[in-house]
Amino acid sequence: MSEPLEKMFNSLYINEVPTLWSSKAYPSLKPLASWIEDLLARTKFIQLWIDQGVPTVFWISGFFFPQAFLTGTLQNYARKEVISIDTITFDFKVLKEHYEDIKQRPVDGCYIRGLYVEGARWDYNTEKLGESRPKELYTDMATMWLVPAGNRSPPTSGVYNCPIYKTLTRAGTLSTTGHSTNYVISVEVPTDKEQKHWVKRGVAMICALDY
Question: Of 71, 103, 135, 191, which is least surrounded by CB within 10 A?
Answer without folding.
Answer: 135
